[in-house]
Specification:
41% strand; 6-stranded mixed sheet; alpha+beta; 4-stranded antiparallel sheet; 311 residues; 20 strands; Immunoglobulin-like
Length: 311
């Protein structure tokens, strides 16, 4: 590469004298790098972006989920690779390449439950459809369009939801201090809000709360409340799905107030009955044992007598 330096001679202002000189090797290499960088920048210039829903998509458990993504500006996408995946690029939920659906490269649990709608692929739009949604389908989904070495993606967040109307309140045996209530409800996703409320709708602090998850990853909720003497008569177990705001509740009316003196008498009577039953059971066991050993002793005596007689 040749570089020209031109200077005007002082003696001849109108005449331009140009000096041609070859660039040093280092300068030549730098110039080539700049040209290569410009070419690379041009080749990687954005051809498109991928758009889709920016808000989370709510889908019911067991339902059908549809997720769409679109090239912008709209353009043909039949020749591109289209990949949907969850957390790992190499484990696609769905893969389309060279005009074919590659089911053999997708995660096995999605093979029979997914399809890619390509009616608008000529405009760069596709829709992933997932059947029989489970709790495991909750989370982010990446949609990637790849054209040669260039690619762009869009991420959509999926929220699986399910509520349960199966709620039960169990009451343990009362005593002179009060009564223990337990509320149970299973089959929720995500984990619901759970609380006790009084007849006025005011929140009553729970004695304890716990949860577990079943084989389908759904939440089973348990909440306890100890009602002391001179306390609440009517209570409600309240649950809410914070995504759909669906509410479920069940109330219990204590037939006898724990502040009622008859309640204390009844609980004392129950305790007395328990003691009496315990004493009776112990007495019966001892009586049976006594009779058994007496009979066993008589049998042994008769056997000994028979042996002496035969001798």
């Amino acid at each position: 590469m040749v570089h020209e330096d031109c200077e005007r001679e002082e003696r001849r202002p109108q005449q331009v004298v140009c000096y041609r000189a070859e660039l040093e090797p280092e300068g030549l290499e730098l110039e080539e790098r700049r040209e290569s960088k410009d070419l690379l920048t041009d080749s990687l210039a954005k051809k498109f972006t991928v758009t889709g829903l920016t808000r989370p998509v709510l889908t019911p458990l067991g339902g059908t989920l549809e997720l769409s993504c679109q090239l912008s500006p709209p353009q043909q996408a039949q020749h591109m690779e289209i990949r949907w995946f969850r957390n790992h690029y190499t484990q696609p939920v769905y893969l389309y390449r060279d005009g074919k659906d590659l089911h053999g490269e997708t995660i096995s649990k999605y093979v029979e439950r997914t399809e890619l709608l390509k009616d608008a692929i000529g405009e760069g739009k596709v829709t992933l459809r997932i059947f029989n949604v489970t709790a495991d389908d909750d989370g982010p989904y990446h949609c990637i369009f790849k054209d040669g070495e260039f690619y762009e993606e869009h991420i959509t967040e999926v929220k699986v939801t399910v509520s349960s109307s199966n709620i039960q309140i169990l009451m343990h045996s009362p005593n002179i201090k009060g009564v223990m209530l337990e509320c149970h409800s299973g089959g929720w996703f995500p984990q619901p809000r759970m609380e006790w409320r009084d007849s006025k709708g005011e929140i009553i602090p729970a004695t304890s709360k716990s949860h577990s998850r079943n084989g389908n990853k759904l939440f089973n909720m348990t909440m306890a409340l100890f009602i002391k003497a001179n306390s609440h008569r009517n209570v409600t177990c309240y649950l809410q799905n914070h995504l759909t705001h669906q509410e479920e509740s069940i109330s219990i009316v204590l037939s006898v107030s724990v502040s009622d003196p008859h309640f204390e008498l009844d609980t004392l009577w129950l305790e007395d009955i328990s003691v009496i039953l315990y004493v009776m059971i112990v007495f019966i066991i001892k009586l049976v044992s006594f009779i058994y050993f007496r009979l066993q002793g008589k049998c042994d005596g008769m056997v000994a007598t028979q042996k002496i007689w035969f001798m």
